[in-house]
Write a structure and sequence with these properties.
Layout: H1 3-15, E1 18-19, H2 20-29, H3 52-55, H4 58-74, E2 79-84, H5 90-102, H6 104-109, E3 110-115, H7 119-128, E4 136-139, E5 150-157, E6 166-171, E7 174-183, E8 186-192, H8 197-201, E9 215-218, H9 221-232, E10 233-245, H10 247-250, E11 261-264, E12 267-269, E13 280-282, E14 285-286, H11 287-296, E15 299-306, H12 307-313, H13 316-326, H14 331-345, H15 347-353, E16 354-361
Parallel strand pairs: 2-3, 2-5, 3-4, 5-10, 10-14
Antiparallel strand pairs: 1-7, 6-7, 6-9, 7-8, 10-16, 11-12, 11-13, 15-16
């Protein structure tokens, strides 16, 4: 039995069943034994999973295109880019290198804040970003941005799905929460009353019809994070990239067991109580909740679309064409790169699996004609 399992069982025996959110917080973020706290390589081809920046630098370059146009809208002497959960800094280096190469004046005007809890990831990103270190400030939380209201762009890529979530079950016409307990020295599940009124009101203004026995996830930390961003953002954009759906699709009875999954060495399972501290636990994002919470804070939706359509709208095809022209003499070797880029935006691959939500604060009419609608439609309308 590993030390983390002992800690979890001891807490349950001493204080009673814990919510799945509390279990997940320990399994992923325990300071010593949590999945994201250890120094083992978790992300990348040799790890458990990989993200878009690991697939090809074109992802970061397209995000940089978005950021560069944002600079024109924001029209401030200093503009701050904040990346939440930056990991080893692969996305950051692609963004900063592209901006520096294509618009040195904007590069000079920019600051880059990396918000990352893991000390190991922060150290790795310092190595990755050594050539841009003069532009970067490393933080452990948004709370460290003290007495400062920034103007800029806040980015999160595959962060919201990793925030600890509650699990619930529709039973006898009511919402019951799923708890984690111990029975005969085995970790088990049980149901009980909601641990928080926030779970009860989560669906208050949403027309969702659950089926008896249907299970689902509720992420309360997503709205909390949005409120923290609102506290430090004077004006600018929030760009969220993750896999998920709008509420009507996410909570469909087709998903009777919810969407949570565990990832261990690129293999997916639905057993959170094995490989504790050694596997990721994740669930699809409720983008309706982010849109609704943003609206309550006067943070407005600019665009909600698929990752594939976003990348096409902001120039990924131009990057491919430019690469072909530059490497025409080595076209055969470039074919692998083209395939990697296609993985990012083709609908049957990552293009439709991931969604992009763009929100704005205090920009209003300045956004006229901001979003470039490409005539090339690669994804069906997601709204």
């Amino acid at each position: 039995m590993n030390n983390l399992i002992k800690i979890i069982k001891s807490q349950i025996r001493d204080f009673g069943p814990i919510t799945f959110a509390e279990f997940m917080e320990l399994a992923l973020y325990h300071t010593q034994y949590g999945y994201y706290s250890s120094s083992n390589g978790r992300i990348g081809k040799e790890g458990d999973f990989y993200t878009s920046p690991h697939v090809h630098s074109a992802f970061g370059k397209v995000l940089a295109n978005f950021i560069m146009k944002s600079f024109d809208i924001l029209d401030e002497e200093k503009v701050t880019i904040i990346e939440l959960g930056a990991g080893k800094g692969l996305l950051a280096i692609d963004i900063l290198t592209h901006i520096k190469s294509n618009n040195p004046e904007q590069y000079d005007r920019s600051n880059y804040y990396i918000v990352e809890q893991s000390d190991h990831s922060k150290n790795e990103s310092r190595k990755t970003l050594i050539d841009h270190s003069h532009k970067i400030k490393w933080l452990s939380s948004l709370d460290e941005i003290e007495n400062e209201k920034v103007t800029g762009v806040v980015i999160s890529n595959e962060l919201i799905d990793a925030l600890s979530f509650h699990r619930a079950k529709f039973m006898n016409g009511n919402l019951s929460e799923i708890y984690v307990s111990v029975e005969n020295d085995d970790i088990t599940e049980t149901t009980g009353k909601s641990s928080s009124r926030d779970l009860e009101v989560y669906f208050k203004d949403i027309d969702i019809q659950f089926r008896e026995g249907q299970e689902f996830e509720i992420n309360l930390l997503a709205e909390k994070l949005l409120r923290e961003i609102d506290g430090i953002l004077k004006k600018g954009f929030i760009l969220t990239v993750d896999y998920g759906y709008l509420a009507s699709e996410l909570f469909s009875p087709e998903r009777m067991k919810g969407t949570y999954k565990c990832i261990y060495k690129h293999s997916i399972n639905e057993s959170p109580y094995i490989n504790i501290g050694e596997q990721d636990i994740t669930a699809h994002v409720d983008f309706s909740n982010l849109i609704r919470a943003g609206k309550s804070l006067k943070i407005n939706k600019v665009q909600y679309t698929t990752q594939g359509q976003f990348l096409v709208d902001w120039g990924i095809l131009d990057l491919i064409n430019r690469g072909i022209e530059e490497k025409s003499s080595q076209l055969r070797s470039f074919e692998k790169e083209i395939q990697a880029i296609k993985n990012l935006f083709l609908p049957e691959l990552m293009g439709d699996k991931f969604k992009v939500l763009i929100q704005e604060k205090n920009l209003g009419r300045a956004l006229n004609d901001f979003y470039p609608e490409s005539p090339f439609k690669i994804s069906f309308n997601v709204l």
